[in-house]
Amino acid sequence: MKHGANGKWYMNARNYLRETAEEADSEEYLEDLWGNMERAYSRKVHGIFDFKWVSKHVDTPFLGRFLKWYANRGFIKDGRTQKLNIDAAQGHFGQIITLSEAKKIVLEKAEEVIRAICPCKYFNRGVREATCLGFTPLKEVLPKLPRFIPENGLEVLDGEKATEFLEKMSEKGYVHSIWAGPLPAIVALCSCEIPSCGAIRLRTDFDINACWKGEYVAVVNPDNCIGCGKCTSRCQFGALSYSPSMDRPIIDPTVCYGCGNCKDVCENDAIELINRNIIPITRGKY
Amino acid sequence: MKSKPKINIDENRCSQPDKCRKCLQVCQPCVLNLTFIDEDYHKPKNWKIIPAFPQLCLGPECGKCEEVCPKGAIGIEYKSY
Ligand code: SF4
Ligand code: SF4
Ligand code: SF4
Ligand code: SF4
Question: What class, spelled out in words, does domain B3-80 have in CATH?
Fold first, then answer.
């Protein structure tokens, strides 16, 4: 992965260019990946195993460790230089991002932004909702996969509409994540929840790193917190709990994904996002 | 003797899972999935419900999917092993 501004791969404007998508054969890849999304867990890898089977063996002493290693190294493969096994979603790397990062991406990085029906909420949760923002390569592919096109069609959103949409998703409580298809081409920005997100749930339920944690860790500032409890219903990851003795929330940094949902809802500026790499126990732990 | 939940889905009764999807919406841990069996993935027609992650199922005591299914297509039972 090549990093851009602030060392973040998703802030590297190059990764959003049509040219990068072409180098990574993005359209061909996405047609296959999105076209088969509803069978993401039952596609046979090398004709032998699928994610359903893998999920049942991740806790097995030696086999489990091997399967996780195999899956995890696949997600971070580079579509320009490495052979990808799409059955195992290789190259489909994703990471949690904050609302302000998401807004910066749609305003400054992405060339074109469209909305698509979220395949994951459909196959995992039975809900059809247009919560995935897609960028140029996905926009080109979706006409071949009409079931992911929202009722009002493939409308290209301008910066204002896209940021408004992201704010609405945050208010709803969704978490934002950014996705490559395949690396390094960035193709989608999703607003989703756990366990509906097909990739994030592999992580939260089975410890398979299909989605990395964000760059930050949330920390409560006790001086500003008034104990209103607003943040306590916002954490999708179970990192935030309410301490009755101190009458304020506490956050477990080793569980926190740095999505910023708790911070965004706090009216007292009592939650800070700190770079995970300056905190010893979370350094390098994505 | 140990036991674990077994999820039986009668495909003949569940005739239009892509339209119904009720069971997916009531299952807290998202055990069930909607998937398709068509070769061509562009406009799939043959959908079905599968128990993707039965190891997360809460068992017959939960049974929410069974209750909500308008076609009586789901059965949750304990299987000994
Ligand atoms: S929302 Fe802010 S002020 Fe309220 S409890 Fe949470 S951190 Fe404290
Ligand atoms: S504690 Fe806050 S930033 Fe961390 S995962 Fe939970 S909601 Fe997101
Ligand atoms: S019994 Fe409950 S946990 Fe199990 S599949 Fe049905 S709804 Fe889900
Ligand atoms: S609720 Fe019953 S009929 Fe409806 S999709 Fe589920 S199994 Fe099929």
Answer: alpha beta
Instruction: Test B52 with A36 for CB contact under 8 angstroms.
Output: no
For residues A191 and A175, is the Cβ–Cβ distance under 8 A? yes
What is the interface pTM, i.e. ipTM, of the complex? 0.95
In 3D space, the residue among A130, A100, A203 whose CA is nearest the CA of residue A138 turns out to be A130
The pTM score is 0.95
* Residues of chain A with C-beta less than 8 angstroms from the C-beta of B30: 124-125, 195-196, 201
Q: What contacts A126, CB < 8 A, 6 or more positions away? A: B21, B22, B23, B24, B25, B34
Contact B42 A144 (CB under 8 A): yes
Which fold would CATH assign to domain A216-282?
A: Alpha-Beta Plaits (3.30.70)
Give the span between the Cα atoms of A278 and B6, in whole angstroms: 46
Task: Profile chain A (286 residues) by mean pLDDT over runs of 10 residues.
Answer: 70 96 97 97 93 94 94 95 94 97 98 97 97 97 98 94 98 98 97 97 96 97 97 97 96 98 98 97 96
